[in-house]
Every structure is written in structure tokens, then in C-alpha cells.
Amino acid sequence: MFAIPGVGWLIAFFVVSVYAVMAVAFGGVDPFLKTSIPAWNPLEWDFTTMGHVIHEVFNGYLRKVFVRTFAFVGLALVGCIAIGYPVAYFAARKAGRHKGLLLAALVLPFWISYLMRMLAWTNLLQPDGLVNQVLGWFSLPDNRNWLDGDWYTVVIGLTYGYVPFFILPLYSTLERLDGRLIEAGRDLGASAIQTFLRVTLPLSVPGLMAASVITVLPMFGDYYTNSYLTSGSPRTEMVGNQIENYLRNTGQPQTGASLVLILMAMLFALMVYYMVTTIRQQRAAER
Amino acid sequence: MSQSRRAFLARSVQLGVLLGAGAPLLQACGGSDDERSQVSATIADGLEPEKGPLRIINYADYVNLEVIADFEAKYGVKVEISTIDTDTEATTKLASGAIKADVHHSMAGTSIGNLIAGGLIQPLNKSYIPNFVNVIETFNDPWYDAGAKFSVPYTFFGTGIGYRTDRIDPALVDSQGWDAIWNATDFKGQVSVLDDEREAFTMAMLRKGITDVNTTDQKVIDQALADVSELIDLVNVKVNIEGYKDIPEGTTSIAQTWSADLIAGAAGYLPEGVTDEVLGFWHPPAGDYVVTNDSMGVLANAENPVLAHLYLNFLLDNEVAEKNFSWVGYLPAITKLDADFVIAAGYVPEHLRSCVPTAEEIAKAIYLKPLGAEGDAKYETAWAKFTAGG
Amino acid sequence: MNPFRRRHGKAPVLAMVTWVYVLWSLLPVLVAVRISLNDGRSRSSFQPMSFRWYWGDPTASLLHDESMHIALFNTLKLAGLCMLIATPIGVAMAIGLQRWRGRTSNAANGLMLVPIVTPEIVFGVALFLVFSQLYTGLPDGLTRQLLGHVTFTISFVVVIVRGRLAAIGTQYEEAARDLGASRLQAIRLVLLPLLSPAIFASVMVVFATSVDDFVISSFLSTGASTETVPIKIYSGARAGSTPALNALATVMLLLTLAAVAIATIILKSIQRRGGEDPGITGGFAGLSG
Lengths: 287, 390, 289
Hints:
Chain B is of the alpha/beta class. Chain B has 15 helices and eleven strands. Chain B folds into two domains: 54-156 and 292-357, D-Maltodextrin-Binding Protein, domain 2; 158-290 and 366-387, 3-Layer(aba) Sandwich (D-Maltodextrin-Binding Protein, domain 2).
């Protein structure tokens, strides 16, 4: 059947790769070269490193990193919703004549490299960059060093980077909302705000959740946004940075691999939620 | 819904069994764990150089591209450089075969021992490297490579404090030493320490008067971790190796740097209108001064070993070394290029004389030595804790 | 108040928020482009304009810096090959999955969706480990990166195409079968042309995703010869960089926009025969379920 090549490929390069992570996490290490000696046979798996890492995550220094990561992602999600929902709503229902142009503008960030957009922000956030200059016009303090390693720079960066990925799925959902339901609400005398709160918003919740999940999942593994924007500040370190450090710069690849598995486990619920709802929708659409 | 969930679970169980059974298969087709051992044979004498291309593994911006071009012209070959960010990355990628190269351009003292024992580099046939006589005497028998059998030194440098003289009084730094970094609360966000799991803790130890920086005593390491972690809140410390551009550009006011960073900074990274007067360097006195050097070697599975040897010889030539130094800023371990020479030749301003380690400082230097898997792991873990936010 | 009067409010506040968002979203990029035209080394302020960083500067400009050429070439090569490999596999998989009945189909569906919800770092680490520990016969960084990109993008193709498949339904194929076409003919002559907007959309998405990929390329890179543009931009910010980096990003941006423009023109010309406008948003409808 047609799906065989695809399924085969994904098994060979995805499933096996994830298994490799487990094999490395539960394997050993070459004493000289400090490279991994993976344990392919599950019977040989050694869980001591994993146990150690789990301990650090819940009781040790890694707890701070995980908490911080969740906090950054949570705040960035709030930012995405706060900015993205109004924009998606406007584009879906109110745009009128300019809809095509607006859509093009909303899709455009997809074609612009993520790193270029971050590069743009580092240009702007330099001490003598545009952001401070504009603040100066409004007589606000204009000498703040934005690239200092502060959490708000990272949250702004994450929000800016991921909000386009949030808006478009949400837009699709909002566009497909049955307009008659909304009009019915208005016809029955509800104000614009009441209609929104009691008709539109509840109807958009599934789409909102899907868009949130698909935005938030990649954010958890992000390590380049914060290190790009803060040139190495320990105060904004996220889980992704620790994983990268352990795998690239230390002789403890098992720890890095263990962290990857822990991260996946934590995100498992979200991942499953997304997959289940998507499969359900696909089945419904194809019936 | 329940039916599909059951199906999903059933499927995963089947998959798990399949993988378990398939594990021996995977093991068979995975790379075998060869016993790695030290390489003992050098290449033969008098061989002709190969056609190339010569592949080099090096840090970014760590060799003058003009020197590379000169080598290409002289031997009629092409040179390809693969860059790595950290020493461990190089070792990992070489060991796993992810990078294939002929010349390792910058082996750190802490890993040469491992590279030798792990059979990744081959002993050198010095008949191809007559320029070895130009090397500073100490490096004829370095602590990391007895008899300099496997390596020739590339550059050497000391670890100290680089800072802006127009913002911080040099007399202050001279009197406070390492404390100057902890006291730099006026310069929050403009302070950095080196992105290296040993250097930052070494600094903390030296500050407290501990000179055995190769200790694996967990208490000492923990104390060093605590001291360095203070900097997070005190001065919003950053962790990077960009002092060479950040101090001249002014985004960093005071930092733990290598001596060569200031030389390189003075040579190439000052913005228009700023003179090198603003750069200052301090280091501990001889005996407390950590001097490190990078070395070059030929990889065991090099496809162009003769060419690799000739490259090493090329870089040890006095003129080539001088030309390389003029761009890179890191001092080559060449006897001729001492402080008087480089200052007279204009490569280093007089007020940065301290950036050139003297013979006495080299003789009494403290070296960062490898500590075995467990010892290294202690530092790595401490470092991970520090970067996690203390 | 007449309860039957329709209030089609123009929502001026929302409009303003939206257009401010668009500006906020796109202006920084314009600033980055403007900085690429700086005459001096500054990466933060506007200096008098010149093309120094594009071709003027003899060592550091885009035209003269070999490593930037390599990065640009690698990125385009990877994206092109990825398009050619991932799209057929993905389209076939979408068609196959749609017809797959039975309990195993859910597992296959799940397998297809997992890459979309997996954080890239997990991908990067997994692929890095599997290539360095298991599939060690592939030394070339570019091959590894390509395999990684394809693995990552197949799922996007499937999702986009399935959305369209659901909209089309099976009646056209069935009609063709009724008229005597074989199954394969029905697919080739009827279904695929109907799917072409979705196929085009997914080709463009694969291209954009591959061009933009940083994490996987970075983990699988084996040195300077396998750097891509995102890697160059990322590492450039940590080393002493010049506006040449902005120039590189700008050139990449222009190339991508050109590719999109060409694809859209082709798409529109096909559509004039097909009659519908699926839009890219059709694809994202697929992503949001």
C-alpha cells in the first residue's frame, strides 16, 4: 500500500532514533574518549544515571531549570494568546477587503528564517539600538541593556518567534466557526462582548487548545532563542541548553540522553492529547 | 475511542517485543566497540606529500587564512577547515567518526592524554618537522606529552582579567586581583567568565589561595561552585569566550579572559575612534598563573599524513608563525617571538606587555590537567549546576 | 433598539491591534535588512548605506567569504533534495493512510503525527545519536542532515495533503473507476491533479521548513563544510560578526520569497483550470485538526 515507504522511513529514522536515545541513556561510556557506548539490549540497561538525573530534576539543581523552562513557556504562551487571538479573530471574521493582504502578511513570517528574526531583535536590542532609541523619544529610561540575561528578553523572544505558528491554526478554526451562531447571539440581544464570551470563545476552545499545544511543544525544547539573545547567561538557562551542554561538551552523554527522555515523558500528555484529537478530527472529516 | 486506544497499546507492546528481539541485530550492525589503544608507529621517512585536500579541525577564527593560502600555494594543495566550538566536541566528533581530518589544530592540554591513549592521534615523525628547533624549550618535553612525541605546541596563553581601563582603574584591579570581578557590582551585566568547566572554578580556587587546581576533592569543588555562583546575582555574570570582541566593543567591562584575547582585541576589534589604551590585562604572579597551551597533532586515520606533518612544520617557521600571530593574537610557542620582539614589531602595545607570559611565568606555571572520567565528571556536573542558575 | 438590525461592526480597535501586530512582526526584519546595507561594522545603528557587506569588502563580504557561500549552497541543496524526497513519500503516505482500515491504521496515524509534536531538540539528539552509534556508515554530514530533514518534514506533507483529501472525498475516483480506469490510473489521472494545490502547498512548506531548520542541521553537522545558513547566523552572533551576516540572511530571504512567488504563480495557473482556492491556510487547517 502507498503508506509503506512513509511508515518504513519513519520507523527507520524516527522510531529507531528514539530507541537509540534510550540505548545511550541506559548505556555506558568509553573511559578515555568519553563517548557513549550504547546498550542496545534492553536486558543490559543500566538505570543508575537515569535515576540520578530524575533525582536532580525533582530535588536538585535541575529542578530550577525545569521550573524556569515551564515558566518561560507559560508566559510566552500567554503572550501568544494575548496577541494572537485578537489578530486571528480579526483576520478570520472582520478583515473585509484587506483579508488577502492581511493573510499574506500573517503567512510571511513562515518564509523568514526564525534565526533571521532573532538576529533582527539582537540588532534592535543592543544598548544603542532602536528599542532604546524609541524609548528615549518617550522619555522612558533608554539605557537598559536588553541583552543582559533577563527573563523578559527571553519571553519576548519566544513570543515573537512562535506567535505566527499560533495565529495561523487559530485563524483556520475561527474562520470555520459557524457565523450564524454568532449572529443568532447578536440577534437575541446580546452585546458584542457578551456574544464573544458566551458564543465565540467557547466554540473556539478546541482550536485554541490545538494551536496552543502545537506552539508550546517546540518551545520546550528551544535552546537557541535564549542563548542567542543573552550570550550565555545562567539566569535564563532552559532544559534544552542543559541537554545540549551534556551531549556536546561533556563526557556524560547518558545524562544528556536521560534528560531528553525525561523531557519527552513530561510532554507526553500534551503530545498524546494532540495526536488523539487530530486523529479523531481526521476520521470525522473523512466519514 | 477505547478500541483505538487498545489497538494503540497492543501495537506498542508488539513493537516493544520486536525491538527487544531485534536488539542483538542492532548491536551487530552498530559500530563495534574496538579496543582503542595508543598508536605506536610513525609514518616512514622520506615519503612524498599527498595530493590533499588537507583537512584541519580547529576553533573558529583560530588561524590566519592568509597563512592557509600561503600553504596552499607552496604545496599546491587545497586546505579545508572544520570548526568546532569546544575541545570536547572535537574529541566526541573525532571518536565517533563524525569528522574526518588530518590535522588537529588545537588539542587542549586536558585532552591530549586521552587522544593519545585512545589512539586518535599518531606519533610524529620529526624528520618532516625540522622547524621544531624554533619551539620554546619548555615545550620539548611538556607535561602532557613526554618528549613531545605526539604533538607540537601551537599557541600558549595565560588566564587573567581583561578590562576597560577607561571604566575601571588599573591600580584597583592590580590591588584586588580576582576580587575585582566579584566587586564589579557597578558593572552589572557587563561581566563575564570563561565558558569552560575548569577555568571558572580555577579562578575561584586561586582567589581563595588554593593552588592545587587539579584537585578532585568534592568539598573544594563545591566551594568553588558556590563562589562562582555568587556572581550570578552580584553582577549578572555571562558565560562566553567572546571577551576578545566584547571588551573592545564595550559590551563587557571586566571579564575573565585569556591573555591573547586582549592582543587580538587590540589588533582587530576596536570600533572606529577607540584606541587600544582602553584595554587592560591583569594576571596573578608567577606561580599562581595558569598557563595553557594548545597543540597540533596528526590524526591516526589521516589520509594525508605526510602533508599533515609538512603543515605542522610550516606553522613552526618563524616568519609564518609571526604572520599567523599578527592576525590571531595568540602567541605561538616560538622562542623568537618573545615580549621584546612582539612589542618592538608593533604587534602588542607596551601597556599590554603583561599579555606575553615571560620565561619565568612559563617555568612556574600552573597547568590544568585531565582528571580521569570521574574527576572530570565532578567538574562537569558542577559546571552544569552553575549554568543552570546556581 | 431594533433587535433585528445586524451590527456588522468594523471593530476599529481590533483592526488597529492587528495592523500593529503586523508591523511588529515584520519591521524588525526590515531593520535587519537595512543594517545589512551599513557601510561600517555596526550591527545596531544605521550607518550610511553601501553594498560593502554584499560585495564591497574584500575579505568579509558575502561575495568573498567562502564559508558563507558554502552555507548558502548547502541550505539550498538540502532544501531542494528534501522537497524531492519528502513530498512523494508524504503524498503516498497520505493517500495510503486515508484508505487504511483496521486497528493498525491508528498506530500508523499516530506514528505519522509524533514528529509534529516532538520538540526539535529531541529529534536532533536522537538523530545525532543514531547516526553516530548505529548508522555509522554515513559519514557525510550533508547526507545525515538530508535524512534528518526528510524525517522531520514527511509528516507536514501528510497532514496538508490529508486535509485536501478529506475535502475532495472519494467520488471523483469512484467515478473514474466506474468509467473503467484501474485503481492506479484513477489515482494518477484524477486524484493527483485534484490534489495539486495541496501538493504545492506542502512542497513550499517543506522548502521553508528545511531552509529554516537549525537544530537538526546543527546536531548533524560535521564541520564548516556542512554548515547551513541558520547555523552560520547562530554562530556568527557569538563570534565577531559584521553586517555581512545580515546580508546573508537577506539574500536567503529574497531567494525564499522568489521561490514562493514562482510557486504561487504556477499554482494560480493550475487553479485557473481547477477552479478552487485552497490557500495555505487549508494546510494549517489540517494542522489544527
